[in-house]
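User: Hi! Is it possible to get a structure for several chains at once, not just one? Here's what I have:
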Amino acid sequence: MTNTYIESFPAEAKVVRAAFYSSFLALAIGGLFGIIQTLHRTGYYRFMDSADYYTVLTAHGVLLAITFTIFFLVGVFTWATTTSLDRPVEDIRFTWAWYGLMVVGTVLTAIPIFAGFTDSEMSASVLFTFYAPLQGHPLFYFGLVLFVVGTWLAGVDWFRSWWAWKQEHPDKRIPLPTFMVLTTTLMWYIATLGVAAAILLFLLPWSLGLVESVNPLLTRTLFWFFGHPVVYFWLMPAYMMWYVMLPKISGGKLFSDPLARVVFVLFLILSVPTGIHHQYLDPGIAEGFKFIAMTNTMFLLLPSLLTAFTVVASMEHGARQRGGTGYLGWLKALPWRDPVFAGMALAGLMFAAAGFSGMINAGMNINYLVHNTFWVVGHFHLTVGTAVALTFMAVTYWFLPQVTGKALWNRSVALGQVVLWFVGMTFMSNAMHRGGLLGIPRRTAEPQYDGFEFEAAVGSVGELDAQIALGGALLTLSLVLFFANVVGTALNSRSDDLPANEYADTLSGPSDAPLVLDNLKLWTAIAIVLVIFAYSFPLLSIIERGGLFGPELTELPVHIGLGLEYLWATTISTVTTASETVVALGAEVNW
Amino acid sequence: MRISKGALLIVIAFIAPLIVELRTVLAWVNVELTVLESVVLGIGLIGVILVWALWPQSQSNGTESAETK
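Assistant: Yes, the chains can be modeled jointly so their relative placement is included. Here is the combined structure:
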């Protein structure tokens, strides 16, 4: 053995491995649902009723955006703290406890979602965002709560490790990977307060029948209080991999430890007070509040651009260490045959494209063009679907040998897998973006309308559908190759010839970083103040206008019959209100 | 070979976004490619890249550069 993770931390390696396998199971099921909905929506192969599309979409969203990503990142964060602090967790039973809680939460959430495929009364086809008045079974909300509490306890575990380490090393700087874990966890604690309030105070009591109604705008706003920063909860572990793994695999060192710390501090401060940019078209939130959210969002470009600079500089340093020369000639010297490197580099490149489409989403006026269209789906398949997912799959090829003690089954298959993901996502997300520009809506099984056809500026909608189906098929094939490697590696015998458990050294180290960067209390306080500035007035205004529990609202359990009933009731109510308003206005004018 | 096999694979993969986006870009200057024309163009580009990559870098000494090994 050559000092692998499993050799240094055998007990922790088991938890990390369990977290990874849980993540991969979610990826497998979520990915299967991905190709099913792709083929259904594009009309190439339909074997289910369109009403079931929303159950498939809910499972796809929850399993991939929540379960796959978060199980993987808790594994990475546990690896990062134990490795960089060079100490085991304080109590391995506590570590298993939070992992177990996350598993129980996932199972409880999944039960009502999957029950949606049956004739059972239980269902939770409420999509990833679970907007009221869509109402899921209480078990769905309860499971989500347990899952989030599991992640909170995981955070406590990482903080306990750091506090114990700090007692023994009072004058040392926080090692960079641990610093990244702690800032991300603090951001997560603040962000999840929103979804915890939405579920515990409103949605869960409502689904249990304890309160009669909720204020949909309030629960939506609380969801997006969490819903945007959750993107950074996925992205920051991917960033961590780009900072601490990519430079080493490139053959060099991280360009700047201080810049990396600045980036993570900026994410801690700026991730949460931006959520309202998902609600630019929500009535009931003043334009001024939306403008503040847009401004905050644009500031978030800064850490991403800093990351692009630092990571590319580190890669160039690595390439030059390997003999690369010239302005661009050094690119040839990078280890493109290594699937870990190639996957992360391609993921980073796709993230640049995602950044550009994200700027469109973030701009208040231009967002109106693409809001709720297929464009948004194309965007997040580049962010979470590629920058995060492809990075996680690529680093799996490094982590699996570390946590199993077994050599990777097949490196060539791994390289083919990451490249196939890049090509498949290129086809799929490009067509989704272009479809969105035509106004094709998202979240519908039937994007076809009688008497109306979307007209493409280039090609045709049929060609866009073909491109999406082709991309989806390539992505599915890529997943099959990924799982072949995971299973093949698990079945391999133990190897004595594995790389050591190390991460990148730095060109400019922590001693070059101002001490204030490690002042987590200060950054957390600033983050909280910014959240108060960004959210207190919008929330007060929403509550003042619509009440804490909203106007009387007919809940909408996700059954088609009841849906039509709700639509009818809402239409009658709207027409009545409108006619009353017209009569009142008429009376006023006459007067 | 002028570049490693891994780098060649990545360069070929980059043809996908290039061809997909090129169709839109060319439409701005009133050059409208069909899907078939785009596919043919893509295959042609891949062929050119393969010829460039597989062509010996220096015929005088007939040796490979270190980075391609």
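The radius of gyration of chain A is 24 Å. DSSP finds 19 helices and four strands in chain A.

User: Great, thank you!
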